[in-house]
Amino acid sequence: MKAVAIIGHSGAGKTFLICQLIPVLVARGYRVGTVKHVGPEVEPDVPGKDTYLHREAGAARVLLYSDVRGALFWNHPGTPVAEYIERYMADLDLVILEGFKHGDFPKLEVYRHGEPLAGSIPVLAVITDRPARIPDGIPVIPRDPELVADFIESEVLTD
After folding, report:
1. How far apart are CA 44 and CA 80, in angstroms?
2. What is the tens place of the pLDDT at every residue in 3-41?
3. Rounded to whole angstroms, what are the CA distances from 9 to 30, 43, 49, 127, 148?
4. Which of 126, 93, 127, 153 is nearest to 17 (CA)?
5. CA 103, 108, 113, 114 torsion: positive or negative?
6. What domains does the chain contain, in order, with CATH numbers?
7. Closest C-alpha among 98, 101, 105 to residue 82
8. pTM, rounded to two decimals
9. Using CA atoms, how far apart are residues 37 and 85, in angstroms rounded to an integer?
């Protein structure tokens, strides 16, 4: 399993690009998972609902399950996300992380405005259709999910 983080400023279009990229990669035969970075104030469960109450009561893990989908909730003491990716997504070909700009994953920056992160954060490439001051030697990829998938295949998915 390989992983790549899609990073960029808020409003740069990270989620939009990921949602375009997933079906392209799936059509090419890859099994793809995603991980979204959120702030600690975001509660992924619904306060007041049974699963939330179970977790608040002290359950180590709570599995929300229906005939068509499931979700696993747990609190953790700052365990690195890489451990959870390895535990729960190791059977996939690629995990796309949204955010995690300070993580130890290869990164692609989606750029739309402001000062590019490239230069202050190591990135494999910058994805943009706008003029930007990108440091020399960092490839620029147009905002085309097919071209981004080509880059991921050649730079991330190859052994």
Report:
1. 18
2. 999 999 999 999 999 999 999 999 999 999 999 988 777
3. 27, 22, 33, 12, 18
4. 127
5. positive
6. 2-39+80-155 (3.40.50.300)
7. 105
8. 0.89
9. 13
